[in-house]
Amino acid sequence: MSESPERDARHKARMQRKKAVVDDKIALATDEYGLLLVHSGNGKGKSSSAFGMVARALGHGMKVGVVQFIKGAATTGEEAFFRRFPEEVSFHVMGEGFTWETQDRQRDIAKAREAWAVARRLLDDDEIGLVVLDELNIALKYGYLELDEVLADIEARPVLQHVVVTGRGALPGMIGAADTVTEMNLVKHAFKAGVKAQKGIEF
Amino acid sequence: MSESPERDARHKARMQRKKAVVDDKIALATDEYGLLLVHSGNGKGKSSSAFGMVARALGHGMKVGVVQFIKGAATTGEEAFFRRFPEEVSFHVMGEGFTWETQDRQRDIAKAREAWAVARRLLDDDEIGLVVLDELNIALKYGYLELDEVLADIEARPVLQHVVVTGRGALPGMIGAADTVTEMNLVKHAFKAGVKAQKGIEF
């Protein structure tokens, strides 16, 4: 992810596209456009809330795209459920997730970039009304993706498309770009000793 | 909701039932039982997160019950979606909700008690793995239902059934009874002037 003329050219093209989209937005008046929502914090509900919004969007007849940047991030139930609707939900769980164990940073970066390429396709598709980028904040926090590039792609999305970004440790730049930021804070977590993670709740 | 011998007898029966359930729980060892989760706070995502858990539970083949204590509480999309699965989701939107305008307290209490009767049926049904009591905290905060009675019914539910209670202003007793409490806090809500509530996001 070093600097390069190609990257500069890509950036310029994106910025031009962004400007065109902003102009479109202005032309559309200001009363309807896609929002960027960020769910952060150390509590539960960041991803669950995004998946509740998926259900809500489907209830309104929208199509939805989901990219999970960390495989196995406690959401196997949602994946099983929403895969029932392949016409309506484009569901992507990327690679094996990040290698917390192996600490192979180059491999992590490569995986994150693959995931982002999928996300970018969804962000380019104006038939999709809602895009969930689950645990994207983690990939950004670890520097596996560049925030400027990610934000430019998000900003250049179709005017009416909503995006939800989840994950603890949202970067200030992501918070700055968002329309709405919610922090889920753990107030109490009193699992009795010996109680394991519960199906339907934790995963 | 005044004191009465009938109510005392009902309470005693519930407490006996609760004791039996607690004994059952102990007998089941401590490694699997239904959790009581509370989503409170002034931010977004309290109800959405509960509905994400509905999707998760359905993905695991569970049956789910939902009671919405405030009709039209910004969740028409979820209702439309989850009503597609009548065999798996028992979805109840109660009455016309509370009468913020008319201030008719007796009517509100009657409506809340009707809603609670439906909730109690779900809490009695051991085929249901997850019960969502959406905006219940509001009914409790306004004193339309008695906390002790509500908690006794929740506590007496089937051992493996999970319950999610949503709504701002959770009472201390509800927080005390919960296994997990998450507070959704609004960090930023920068809807540009003139932007109306967005379908798929706000409702």
From TrEMBL, chains A, B:
GO terms for cellular component: cytoplasm. It is found in: Cytoplasm. It catalyses: 2 cob(II)yrinate a,c diamide + reduced [electron-transfer flavoprotein] + 2 ATP = 2 adenosylcob(III)yrinate a,c-diamide + 2 triphosphate + oxidized [electron-transfer flavoprotein] + 3 H(+); 2 cob(II)alamin + reduced [electron-transfer flavoprotein] + 2 ATP = 2 adenosylcob(III)alamin + 2 triphosphate + oxidized [electron-transfer flavoprotein] + 3 H(+). Its EC number is 2.5.1.17. GO terms for biological process: cobalamin biosynthetic process; porphyrin-containing compound biosynthetic process. Pfam families: Co_AT_N, CobA_CobO_BtuR. The keyword Cell membrane does not apply. Pathway: Cofactor biosynthesis; adenosylcobalamin biosynthesis; adenosylcobalamin from cob(II)yrinate a,c-diamide: step 2/7. SUPFAM superfamilies: P-loop containing nucleoside triphosphate hydrolases. The keyword Transferase applies. Residues 1-26 form the Cob(I)alamin adenosyltransferase N-terminal domain. Signal peptide: none annotated. GO terms for molecular function: ATP binding; corrinoid adenosyltransferase activity. InterPro entries: CblAdoTrfase_CobA (IPR003724), Co_AT_N_dom (IPR025826), P-loop_NTPase (IPR027417). Keywords: ATP-binding, Cobalamin biosynthesis, Cytoplasm, Nucleotide-binding, Porphyrin biosynthesis, Transferase. Required for both de novo synthesis of the corrin ring for the assimilation of exogenous corrinoids. Participates in the adenosylation of a variety of incomplete and complete corrinoids. Belongs to the Cob(I)alamin adenosyltransferase family. This is Corrinoid adenosyltransferase. The lineage of its organism: Bacteria, Pseudomonadati, Pseudomonadota, Gammaproteobacteria, Pseudomonadales.
